[in-house]
Amino acid sequence: MKEFIKGANPYMPLWEHVPDGEPRVFEHEGEKRVYVYGSHDIERDKYCGRNYVVWSAPVTDLTDWKYHGVAYETHYDSILYAPDVVKRGDTYYMYAAERCGSLIVVASSKTPWGPFENPVETKLGFDPGVLVDDDNRVYAYWGGCAAPCYIAEMEEDMATIKEGTLVENPLGHSTCPWNPVDDGHISLIDAFFEASSPRKVMGKYVYIYSKRYEKPVPELGVFTPNNGFLSYRFSDSPFGPFIGGGDFSFNGGEILRDSEGLGTMTYRWGNNHGSIMEVNGKWYVFYHRHTGTTEYTRQAMLEPVDVALGTDGNLFIGDIKYLNGEPVSSRPVEMTSQGAHVNGLDAYKWISAGYACHIYGSSMRAYIEPSYEQKDTVSTPVVGITSGTTVGFRYLQFGNNTPESVSVVLDRYKPMKINVRIDSYKGRIISTLDLTDGAEENSFDGAAQTGSAGAFEKTAQISVGVVGKHAVYFEFLSDLEGEIAAFNRFTFS
Question: Of 72, 355, 415, 455, which alpha carbon lies 20 to 30 A from 437's?
Answer without folding.
Answer: 355
